[in-house]
Design the sequence.
């Protein structure tokens, strides 16, 4: 059964800065942000640093409601700039710093930001060129901007609940990236819901090794911590040994993607997670075998949850009670889920965006007539109400007239000891329309026929891969999600 947290106002305080300020005022001396150098900043220091950043941003001539592009690696300076931008009433547009120039150009031209913050001269040149040479691009630390440029202190922390705080561009694994405007209300609702479900308290410390350009690291990790009044140990990236060290040093929480848990397991370091009160997995399916391996080593099953950029967190396995591998549990507080006749998961709640940026057709296609958001995920509820995701509707393989969902085939193949990783896609076939094809990263010696025989013991004949190919690794995006289009 799902946890039953107390009733609470998901939108209390009205905007994100107001929520942060309430916590910072209550515990001004509390350690709140630790940078990669190991130094802790107190809540009062974070308030001061974010205020200076807000004042400097407004001193450039930016006005509330305008968009600020941020192309930079995760850092304390990134956090200051992000907090300052929201306190100034700006909309932050985070961009993956690993994007090549064409990807950066597409985001700049779609988002039409009023200015950019960057951490390299090369990225500054890219964003200026993409905007026709007119876009101001400042150093991430805003050192060249004087806070005293205005005659009077600017008004801060006044964003309305429906004002857009974050403009996230989807990864585009199933099509051209779309702009996802997340309001202060969306982010407050999402942060409050997970805090209730996961018992997130001011005493908690999160190891945050997720990138800040993504909604998982920024919208859940950083926002969730600050909205709960908790502390963040910011890491510049994921390193298994680094996470293991911090897990034994007073941290209480770790949020990761399956690829991170796999690297911890392969390095023999998963047992170091035993000191944490909660470990969470998301952004990609967590293989049941890996979940079991981590549970044995860490003393707890990773809490697998389900979310997406457009909706933030939708569902999760219970904090108390059975965490069931292969499922994503129950809806979070304030979230409603249903499954339509075609098996698609649909959602509504204060966490869901109102629509895509400048894309009325995409918005219309993504919402039902009665206002539910269509996730594009195919799922089912088991007899106890746990939600299990079968696959993506756009990843559906139709072979010989039968529907095949890649995840089901992947889960079957992953139970073979010779399979380290696997991804299943459909390839064009004159005879079958599409043929089920498995791309496998092997663990030792294994051949294609053996894998097909193994699959035949677990799957209907039409689901058994007709082709099995081997690769040294699977193509993944920055959050560890397999990019099927490249297969």
Sequence:
């Amino acid at each position: 059964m799902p946890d039953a947290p107390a009733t609470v106002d998901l939108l209390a305080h009205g905007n994100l800065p107001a929520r942060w300020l309430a916590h910072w005022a209550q515990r001004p001396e509390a350690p709140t942000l630790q940078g990669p150098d190991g130094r802790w900043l107190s809540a009062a220091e974070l308030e001061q640093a974010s205020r200076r950043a807000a004042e400097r941003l407004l001193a450039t001539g930016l006005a509330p409601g305008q968009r600020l592009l941020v192309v930079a690696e995760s850092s304390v300076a990134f956090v200051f700039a992000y907090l300052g931008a929201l306190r100034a009433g700006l909309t932050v547009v985070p961009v993956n710093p690993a994007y090549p120039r064409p990807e950066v150009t597409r985001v700049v031209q779609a988002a039409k930001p009023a200015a950019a913050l960057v951490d390299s001269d090369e990225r500054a040149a890219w964003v200026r060129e993409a905007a026709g040479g007119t876009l101001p691009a400042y150093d991430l630390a805003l050192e060249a901007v004087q806070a005293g440029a205005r005659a009077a202190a600017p008004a801060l922390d006044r964003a309305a609940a429906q004002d857009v705080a974050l403009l996230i561009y989807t990864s585009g694994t199933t099509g051209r990236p779309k702009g996802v405007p997340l309001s202060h209300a969306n982010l407050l609702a999402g942060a409050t819901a997970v805090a209730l479900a996961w018992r997130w308290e001011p005493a908690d410390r999160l190891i945050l090794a997720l990138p800040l350009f993504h909604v998982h690291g920024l919208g859940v990790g950083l926002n969730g911590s600050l909205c709960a009044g908790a502390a963040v140990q910011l890491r510049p990236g994921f390193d298994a040994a680094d996470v293991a060290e911090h897990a034994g040093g007073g941290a209480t929480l770790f949020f990761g993607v399956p690829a991170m848990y796999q690297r911890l397991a392969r390095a023999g370091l998963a047992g170091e997670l035993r000191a944490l009160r909660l470990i969470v997995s998301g952004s990609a399916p967590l293989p049941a075998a890996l979940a079991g391996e981590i549970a044995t080593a860490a003393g707890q099953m990773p809490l697998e949850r389900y979310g997406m950029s457009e909706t933030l967190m939708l569902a999760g396995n219970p904090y108390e009670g059975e965490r069931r591998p292969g499922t994503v549990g129950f809806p979070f507080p304030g979230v409603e889920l249903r499954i339509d006749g075609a098996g698609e998961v649909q959602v509504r709640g204060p966490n869901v965006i109102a629509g895509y940026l400048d894309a009325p057709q995409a918005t219309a296609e993504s919402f039902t007539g009665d206002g539910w958001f269509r996730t594009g995920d195919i799922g089912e509820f088991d007899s106890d109400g746990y939600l299990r995701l079968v696959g993506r509707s756009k990843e559906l393989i139709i072979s010989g007239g039968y529907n095949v969902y890649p995840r089901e085939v992947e889960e079957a193949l992953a139970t073979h000891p010779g399979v380290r990783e696997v991804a299943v896609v459909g390839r064009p076939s004159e005879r079958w329309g599409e043929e089920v094809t498995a791309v496998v990263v092997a663990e030792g010696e294994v051949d294609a026929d053996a894998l097909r025989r193994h699959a035949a013991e677990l799957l209907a004949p039409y689901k058994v891969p007709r082709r099995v190919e081997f690769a040294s690794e699977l193509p993944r995006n920055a959050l560890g999600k397999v990019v099927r289009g490249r297969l």
